[in-house]
Amino acid sequence: MALIAILGSTIISLFGVFLPVWNNTSLQQKWEWFTIGDHTLHVGILVNNLTALMQLVVCVIALPVHIYSRAYMKGDTGIHRYWMYLSLFCFAMLGLTVSLNLLQLYIFWELVGFASYLLIGFWFTRETAAQANKKAFIINRIGDLGFLIGIALVYAHCGTLDLSALFNQTGFFKDINIGLISSIDKNAPWVTFAGLAFFLGAMAKSAQFPLHVWLPDAMEGPTSVSSLIHAATMVAAGVFLLCTVFPLFNETVLLIIVIIGTLTALTAALFALGQYDIKKVLAFSTISQLGFMMVGVGIGSWDAAMFHLTTHAFFKCLLFLSAGAIIHEMAHLKTKARLNIDPQDLRHLGGLRRFMPKTFFCMAIASLSLAGFPFTSGYLSKDSIVITAYEWAIHFGGVYVLIPIVLIIVSILTAFYIGRLIFKAFFGSFKYDSHVQGGFALHEAPGAMLIPMFFLAAASLFPLFGLSLADYHSSWIMQTLDADTAYPTLAQAHLFIPAVLTGGAILAWLVGWHWYAKAKYPLSENNRLVHFANKQGYLNEFNERIFVKGTLKLSRMLYIFDRYAVDGTTKLFSWFVRRLSAAIYWFDKYIVDGLVNSFAQMAYYIGHLVRHVQNGQLQGYLGFALTVVILGILYLIIT
Questions:
Q1: Helix ranges (DSSP H) in 159-277
Q2: In 3D, which of 49, 50, 67 has the Cα closest to residue 10?
Q3: Is residue 486 helix, strand or coil?
Q4: What are the beta bridge partners of residue 41?
Q5: pLDDT, tens digit (0-9, with 9 covering 90-100), for 164-208
Q6: Of 88, 182, 448, 568, which one's alpha carbon is 20 to 30 angstroms from that of 390?
Q7: pLDDT tens-place string over residues 223-245
Q8: Lowest mean pLDDT segment, chosen from 215-219, 493-497, 587-591, 607-611
Q9: 3-class DSSP state for residue 36?
Q10: Which residues contact 537 (CB under 8 A, 6 or more apart)?
């Protein structure tokens, strides 16, 4: 049912939504949701170029992942949960792409996070998986708080959350007014705070430094899930959000986005160099490429960011599915030969192209696209960001030039680490060849896994996005979205930057071939730089010491303060109150009540005496009178 649902969604998305809307009139449908005072909030659907593209990408990527999952997850005891979680994930992402207002988008944003929590911890009996999904959930709450603050600021100052009212259907059409946002002062402090708040939400969801630490650990989920999270769903949501609210950003926010994006791209590429887990190499690759997309948004070229998001979805999904095929076969070998190995560890791989040539072919195409090699989609989309960043830097001058320089270095590092993965996995000799010769054969991935991989491999080449090999402006995505930038085009940049990137990639591969395929690696595993990269710059240790242990220490200090200071003061005060109340009780009982009781007893005794006189007997009255007379005579005698 899940496969049928996503197949139907893909068909509807392509023929019922994308083709009628793309480069045409946008569509929206709204219904009254609830009313607060004089403000009515609507729920509905908004489809324009941006949302139609994002929705199509989600469907087209999710469909091969569903087909692949039928073989990859076959025999898993939790298969029913898997399909339910996967369908929830896709539903949430599709709802996010076509949301009419920011609050509705936020609800689906949270639902995407919840579904990813379920999928990352799918094998929850593993302690690492249970810890990974909690880590992802907690870090994403930081970003979600920022997103919520941004929503509150926009509503407080604009009085609406409707995207069509704020940005005139997000403002992604030429020669139109961009709605309420056009009338605000971009230099107002609240605009800066709102932009930074939305960016904080995107930082957590799209794994930007330093909130990226959850994404490598998210590899604990099934590889098919990893491919969907990294390709077109969860991590892409942050970039999509920034493109949606792009007209809100001022120069300060955009510059911060550029800086964080560049730092993320560089650090993730460096960390990828020292990883041995095949999925973690790809995870840091995703983080690095998301940094490129953030730079695209920050320099004002959000169309290039969406272009790279689209191409990246295909080749990164293919990389993960190919890695899944390798892990799938290595896990079978581990079980059959009773090996004590990690099937994801690159150190246990090598020479696999002899056993899995089709997987090697698919993964090689995806790797070339990631490295930005000519004839691939990645060559067009990555160049669009690097070249535009260079034009942006030349326009502003000064230290801004460091941004494209760093991006060029990161592009070369990208080619090197993906080449390292290919050389270590598919070239050289297979470490367990003796077991294969002993009858424990490695096989090519089954057809149900290969068919989606071949489709993605074809989609990773340039013809799907444009017939030009070198001009990214001719791509149908760039021609339609076509963000207006304030800096001029530099023709020379379109020549020397692709040449530098391609030449650098080839040089990186030659070095990688010499080091890994020829087994002439000059560094040891204990090298400090290798260890630094493998440990991800010790960020997890830093977070553990500062935030986790720091929070625990603070909690213990607060506990001691609460127990001995707060509780001590409370107990002292309560003891004083008890003593005071005891003293007051004694005073009330023996002084106040004593006086009252004494007067009462005196009155009682006097009355008692008088009562005996007034008894109605004559002899009593005569005796009383005689007594008075005698007392009077005695008084007279004495005085």
A1: 163-167, 189-205, 214-217, 223-231, 234-244, 251-272
A2: 67
A3: coil
A4: 34
A5: 888 875 444 444 445 677 777 788 899 999 999 999 999 999 889
A6: 182
A7: 888 888 877 677 888 999 999 89
A8: 607-611
A9: strand
A10: 267, 270, 271
Torsion of CA 373, 58, 214, 275, to 10 degrees: -30
Residue 370 structure tokens: 């990631």
Among 500, 288, 299, CA closest to 383: 500
The residue type of 353 is R
571-605 burial, b for 16+ CB within 10 Å, e for fewer?
eeeeeeeeeeeeeeeeeeeeeeeeeeeeeeeeeee
Residue type, position 465, single letter: F
Alpha-carbon distance of 425 to 319, in angstroms, equals: 13
The Cα 221–Cα 118 span in angstroms is: 9
**SS3 per residue for 148-176:** HHHHHHHHHHHCCCEHHHHHCHHHCCCCC
Distance CA 210, CA 204 (A): 9
Q: What integer pLDDT is reported at residue 176 of this predicted model? A: 43
Burial label for 374, CB within 10 Å (0-12, 13-18, 19+), is middle
Name the token pair of 365.
């195409």
Question: Measured between alpha carbons, how far is 606 from 513 in angstroms, rounded to an integer?
Answer: 123
Closest CA to 54 of 318, 207, 283, 238: 238
Tokens of residue 447, six digits: 């057809």
pLDDT tens per residue, range 103-114: 999 999 999 989
User: For the chain, what are the domain ranges?
Assistant: 255-534, 545-638
User: What phi-psi label fits residue 244: left (phi over 0), alpha (psi between -120 and 50 degrees) or beta?
Assistant: alpha
Which distant-in-sequence residues (6+ apart) come within 8 Å of 302 by Cβ?
242, 243, 246, 296, 481, 483
204 contacts: CB under 8 Å, gap ≥ 6: 139, 140, 141, 142, 143, 144, 146, 211, 238
Quickly tell me which residue has 């990631």 as its tokens. Answer: 370
pTM score: 0.85
Which long-range CB contacts under 8 A does 492-497 form with residues at least 24 apart?
493/387, 493/390, 493/391, 494/387, 494/470, 497/383, 497/386, 497/387, 497/390, 497/404, 497/408
| Residue 294: predicted pLDDT | 94
